[in-house]
Amino acid sequence: MATNTAPMMSLNGRVVPYDQCTIHAFSGVVKYGAAVFEGLRGYWNEERGDMYVFRLREHLERLRYGMRVLRFDTIYDEDFMADSLIAMIRANDLRETVHLRMIAFLDGDDELAATGPVGLVCGAVPRPRSPAVTNGVHVQTSTYQRVSDNALPPRVKCTANYVNNRAAELEAKRNGFNGVLMLTDRGKVSEGSGACFFMVRNGAIHTPDVSSDILESITRDTAIALAKETLGLPVIERTIDRHEVYAADEAFWCGSGYEVQPILSLDRLAIGTGEPGPVTRGIQKAYFDVVEGRTDAHPEWRTPVWANA
Ligand code: PMP
Hints:
Blueprint: E1 8-11, E2 14-17, H1 28-32, E3 35-45, E4 50-54, H2 56-69, H3 78-91, E5 98-106, E6 118-126, H4 131-135, E7 137-145, H5 162-174, E8 179-183, E9 189-192, E10 196-201, E11 204-208, H6 218-229, E12 235-238, E13 250-255, E14 259-266, E15 269-270, H7 278-291, E16 302-304
């Protein structure tokens, strides 16, 4: 099977080879999409010879929150999940920047309202920085409406939600765009298919608030903190109109996988100059300094993999 995934994975706390990391085709996750997942990054720091998992505790907290909302009868504790992830990284002897994937899923072969058994899987994929971080992206507003909190809550990182994101992303890519911006059921700006949206207007940074049917993104939280601390810019979390984005001076989106990518145009209308702007570049610099451990700021955000091996 063609795969990029590192050869060793973790299944229910045991390190297993990739081809033994299997579940039954009739498990609850396959039948009903009953799973929550996380995508994190482990950043390799060559100088220090260590890998830093970025904001591991916050990702695990969100995973536990998702398991509770899905009413799973087992909610793994953070230490068990952290140990499973770190053991998998060490078993692969990973010494490069990777994307880490964790899925807590409904196993077994029961009916719709089953709450267990619950499984946990972890794996890693080598994932260097996307060229989009430097070059930027061209984005389309989706014709698909973002799922809403009272239907399929986007703040729960549930596998089933991503049928919505996938449809939106496929549509945008068919139409020749790099990515997609989704709107809420009220027609307001929500988020990308895997990233949270920001724009710069009149000297302030604006981003849809947490009631705009977004994932409560850890990178969003990081960008808000860094914008204030490093750039000294105000960040306003509010409802954003679709047509306001066309008036922005700059825009970018961010996520653990995407990192921070400049948005150069929306619906073929240039945003600002149509080039990555100074605020976006400033956020990028602050972000990469902190995730890669090139600054001493926010050590609590970086979990070293090898220092304590
Ligand atoms: N929104 C969506 C829909 C996502 O899938 C992601 C990626 N997890 C994000 C935003 C960014 O979230 P985070 O910064 O926590 O990775």
